[in-house]
Amino acid sequence: MRYPSMVGVVVTIMKAPFCVVSEGKYIVFQGGLSKAIMGAFGEGGLMKPSDMIDRTRYEALHCPVRQFCPLAFLCAKRLHDGRHLLPAIAEVGYHEMVWTDLTVRRRVYVVRRGLLVNKCFVNNGVEVPQALFAPGSVAGIPDIYVPYVASDFYFFVGLVPGQLCDFDGEVVRSQIDALGVPEAQMVLSRISLNCTTSMYGQSLTFAHPRAREKVVSVLLRLESAFARCADFTGEVPIAHDDVAFLAGLERATASRELKALAKEGLIGLGYRRIDVLPGLRAAYGGLIEASLPFYGNDWSAVSA
């Protein structure tokens, strides 16, 4: 594939990082080809590198999850040599797979929009859900603190199409380590606690003995995850198949329970859409899954 030449821009295609150079300064993007770069090849000629830098930085500073993102302290940060540290914003489609450790350099992802599920393999190649990663969740931090081993036994899959902020793992680690004590430990604690809480929620779903409770558990977890977004209205854009997978049920069983909940007026059903109504939380608010917290930058629970 051929790309138009860009004056003052150095691009390394594929998985390596690439830099955009402008007036003696450069901005570091990590990951594959960014939409910011792709926009420069649109109709009407090339975008000025300085405009591209400003637009990407503006987008990072006005990220919808910035207020509760544990890595907000480094995103769009101006470094001592004049660079701005920005992520590559990647689109993730439905059932698209994402790895943190199958690239030349390990990746760290922040869910900007949408929903990812962390899958892992068990016996006989069976896939099971391990945790949900909703807006503000960070994936890939454990990988950068252990010896590098490329693996394919766990990965992330898009359940709701959205966007990821893609950072180079070594850059993230160096920025966290530079915070010193106790700030670095606090950042890692927030990320780890949020991840552990999500895994705990999945364990609670599996632990319920009845199919009805498993389905309700999934819906309450999804509602809490999306409630962190300011524009959430109770509509969860997810299919029956995905609810069944998260609940550990057959598709027919999950659909039967969803239809029963809809008949009772606790949820609304549509095409690849489930409307979580107030009655569901009123009826099942006693479940632990209804109050699992997500910790923001100041240790306040964003959702509970």
Automatic annotation (TrEMBL):
Residue intervals of the HTH crp-type domain: 209-280
Taxonomic superkingdom: Bacteria
A Pfam short name: HTH_Crp_2
InterPro entries: HTH_CRP, RmlC-like_jellyroll, WH_DNA-bd_sf
Alphabetized GO MF terms: DNA binding
GO process terms (BP): regulation of DNA-templated transcription
Annotated protein name in UniProt: Helix-turn-helix domain-containing protein
